[in-house]
Design brief:
Elements lengths: L1 E5 L3 H9 L5 E3 L2 H7 L3 H11 L4 E4 L5 H12 L5 E6 L2 H12 L3 E7 L2 H9 L4 E4 L1 H6 L4 H15 L4 E4 L5 H10 L3 E4 L1 H6 L4 H17 L5
The protein binds erythose-4-phosphate.
Erythose-4-phosphate binds next to helix 7.
Length: 217
């Protein structure tokens, strides 16, 4: 499974990337707002830090305007993936931009039906939002499962990018299903390393080591 980090915080991206953990980055307008920085500047910096796809989202709602914004965003760096919303106009923009050779991430996907259309429109990535479905008492992971089944039935090459990931269990479930990518907030990526028994075991080993009176260095 590939890991993308879902943030526009360049310090967090640099730290995770130094560990070799990152295969890409996703941003959205809310994350750009949170960064407090101009979008073109922050996307350019992220693209310089990470080799993989860096999603930058259009904000127009009409296809031709989305395509124009997509051209501008794709011009920032060769590893920009243009992010378009899963609307009828977004699908038109996806078809055109992928036809021109750009990577396109179709976002705000909440159903397998939407994902099927995105694959037909040639999307490089489809982003089903697991957490936002769970927030409504629905089963976000069931949508990932359905998309995996449908894409495999027909050999669609669109990568399933599990998004709106809130917990370690979301990551593990998405991996069990075979989602190609999970885009994960930095805090959840770090939480993947945590286990109460690791902490407990380490405390006990360190206490015993102190009793030996020895030093390694
Ligand atoms: C995906 O690319 C989105 O940026 C993101 O995963 C949305 O997550 P949220 O529901 O936590 O805002």
């Amino acid at each position: 499974m590939k890991f993308f980090v879902d943030t526009a915080d360049t310090a967090a991206i640099a730290e995770l990337n130094a560990l070799g953990l990152l295969d890409g980055v996703t941003t959205n307008p809310s994350l750009i707002l949170k960064s407090g920085r101009p979008m073109d500047e922050v996307i350019a910096e992220i693209c310089g830090l990470v080799e993989g796809p860096v999603s930058a989202e259009v904000v127009a709602t009409e296809a031709e305007a989305m395509i124009a914004e997509g051209h501008k965003l794709a011009g920032i760096a060769p590893n920009v993936a243009v992010k378009v919303p899963l609307t009828w106009d977004g699908l038109k923009a996806c078809k055109r931009l992928t036809g021109e050779g750009h990577m396109v991430n179709v976002t705000l996907c909440f159903s397998a039906a939407q994902a099927l259309l995105a694959a037909k429109a040639g999307a490089s990535f489809i982003s089903p939002f697991v957490g936002r479905l769970d927030d409504l008492g629905l089963d976000g992971m069931a949508v990932i499962r359905d998309i995996r089944l449908i894409y495999d039935n027909y050999g669609f090459e669109t990568e399933i990018l599990a998004a709106s990931i809130r917990t370690v269990n979301h990551v593990i479930e998405a991996a069990r299903i075979g989602a190609d990518v999970a885009t994960v907030p930095p805090g959840v990526l770090k939480a993947l390393a945590q286990h109460a028994l690791t902490d407990k075991g380490l405390a006990s080993f360190l206490a015993d080591w102190q009793k030996t009176g020895q030093k390694i260095l």
